[in-house]
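Record type: monomer structure entry
Structure origin: computed from sequence
Chain ID: A
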Amino acid sequence: MMTRAKVLLAAALVLGSASACSDVNGNNVAADGSYFLMTVSNSSGSTNVPYTYTDPQTGDRIDVQSDQYVLSSNGTYTEQQTYRDNGFQQVANETGSWTQSGNVVYFTPDLGSDFGTNPYQGTVRNSGEFNGSRTLTISIGGTTAVYSD
């Protein structure tokens, strides 16, 4: 009888520790990996990629074709965006370092990055399913971008 109780206790500990490593609700998700832009939302509504906007500084029509973040486990990241500026194909890059606290990801761009050097942050969550997809959400200046792995 005592042996069976020890086996059940051991099984309960194994199951309990396995569930502690992964949070189905999205609150305990490692951010490292690759994320691809899926949707962009602002005061005008929400749209899927590709999406078009007018650059407020130049008046140019910008057609964003793709945008990808790669967060490496060593704390560095790259972002690469492919877009058309008044019909001309362009690529913009950002590199820098990232850290994570809970589900908040903090980005610090390197000097010389195409998007500027101001630090910003996002949140990472999973889909609510065991081993489900993850999303990275970044909001800057009234625009929210949602990336998925």
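Annotation 1: The first strand starts at residue 33 and ends at 42.
Annotation 2: Residues 21 and 126 are 13 Å apart (CA to CA).
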